[in-house]
Amino acid sequence: MHLRLPAQTIACHECDLLQAEPELAPGQTARCARCGAFLARNPPDSLDRTLALTLTAMLLYLVANAWPLVGLELQGRHVQVTLFGAVQALWREGMTPVAALVFGTALLFPLLEMAMILMVLLPLRLGRVSPRMAPFFRLVRSVQPWGMVEVFLLGMLVSLAKLAHMATVILGTAFWAMAALILVLTAAGRAFDPRLLWQVPPEGAQS
Amino acid sequence: MKPLTAREAGLMSCHVCGQLARHEGHTHTRCPRCHAPLHQRKPASVSATWALLIASAILFIPANTLPMMTTSSLFGTQSDTIMSGVVFLWNSGSWPLALVVFFASIVVPLLKILALAWLNWSVQRRSRRAVMQRTRLYRIVEFVGRWSMLDIYVITLLVALVNFRGLATIEAGPAAVAFGAVVVLTMFAAMSFDPRLIWDPLADADKT
After folding, report:
1. A72 interfaces chain B, CB cutoff of 8 Å
2. Is the domain of A125 the same as that of A151?
C-alpha cells in the first residue's frame, strides 16, 4: 500500500523556515534546506510495517516483563529479579521518587507509546478514521522522549559488570527479550510515518 | 531569495503534527488538524528554561556529594558517591565501564546544563553569531540527555539483586533522588528551549 504524499508547504520545526515539502520516493528523507533538521521520511509500506513491528514489540515487552531479567548466585543462595520486582524493591526501601521514575521510564511510558501507536494505526489499517486518533497521537508524542528501555539495558550491563567479581551472574529470558525489544522498537520508529495519519480517509487513496 | 519564516508570514506550525495555521493574535488557538494548543514559539521559553536550569544546577551538587549507594557486607559498610563508584570501577580493571558511567553521570549532565545555559543566554541577548553551530549543539544536547538516566537504573538493579541478608546488601542513598531530579529537570529544560529563537534575530535584522 503506497500512498502518494502531496507536496505542500511546511515550516521547519527547528528554524521555522517555510519550504515546500518535497515529493519523497519510498525510503527517502527530507531535511530542512536551511538548518538540515529532519523533516520527514517516506518509509516503504509504513502502515503495515509499523503495525507488524509494534505488535512484535508488544509481545517482546510481555516476555521482558513476565520472566526474570537477571539472577545472581552467591554461596549457594539464589536471587533473581523481574523489572517490576526491581521497582518494588526500591519502593520498599523508601526510594519512592526514584522507584516511580524507573517505573515510568522503563515500564509505563514504553507500553503507553506502543499501545497508543496501535490505537492510532489499527483503525487506519481497517479503513476507519477514528475521531480519537489525534489525542492518542498527541499522547504518543509527549510520552516518546521518556521511554528509555535502551538506557535501562545499558544500565543492566553496567550493574552486572559491577557484580561479576563477587557473584555468579545469570542472564534471564527477559534480558534477551529486552535486547530484541530495543531492536524492534528502533525499527518500528523508523518505519512509522506520522504523515499517514493526516491523509484523507483511505477510500480516496488508490495504491 | 530571502528566506521566509512561518512567523514572518503570520503563520504558526503545530508542534505535534506540523500543520500550518494562521496566527490570529489571541492566545488560545488550537491546531485545526490535531487540536493541540498552538503557539508561535514555546510560551515563556527563555524564563522556563532558566528556572529549570538553575534548579538542576543546584541539585547537581547533592547528587555528586551525597552517597549514591551503601554496600554492607561481611567486611563492613561502605558508602559510594557517583565519583567514587567510577573510581572503584576504574581500579577494579573495568575502565571501559568506568568511562561509560563517568560520561553518562558526570560529563553529560554537567555539559548539558552549561550548553543549555549558553544557548539560552545567547538567545536572550539576541545573538546572530554561530547560528548553525548553536542549532547543532542543541540537537546533541537533546539526543544525549536521556543517557544520564544510566546510573538510576544501575542503582535500581543493584538494590534489587544484592539482597543476601547476612552476606551482602546494597541500599540506595539520598544522591539517587537528587540525581534523578537532575536528569528529569534537564530533560524538561531541553524541551522548554525553543531552537527557533536562535534563528529569529536573523529575520528581524533583515527587516531593519
Report:
1. yes
2. yes
Looking at the complex, report in whole angstroms how far the Cα of residue B161 sits from the nearest Cα belonging to chain A. Answer: 6
Among B19, B132, B180, select the one facing A101 at the smallest CB separation: B180
Say whether residue A75 is in contact with chain B using an 8 A CB cutoff.
yes
CA B56, CA B48: separation in Å to the nearest integer?
12
Q: Are residues A190 and A166 in the same domain?
A: yes
**Do residue A21 and residue A73 come from a single domain?**
no
pLDDT per residue as tens digits for the range A145-201:
999 999 999 999 999 988 888 889 999 999 999 999 999 999 999 999 988 888 754
* Residue A8 confidence (pLDDT) above 90: no
Q: List C-alpha distances in Å: A37 to A96, A149, A156, A188.
A: 39, 25, 33, 21
Residue A13 belongs to what domain range?
1-42
Same domain? A33 vs A108: no
Return the residue matching grid coordinates 517482546: A60
Predicted TM-score (pTM) of this structure:
0.90
| pLDDT 10s digits, A102-120 | 999 999 999 999 999 999 8
- List the single residue in A with minimal CA-CA distance to B99: A158
Contacts of B9 in chain A (CB under 8 A): 18
The count of structural domains within chain A is 2
Residue whose entry in the numeric block shows the C-alpha cell 541539585: B59
Q: What is the chain B residue with the closest CA to A77?
A: B164
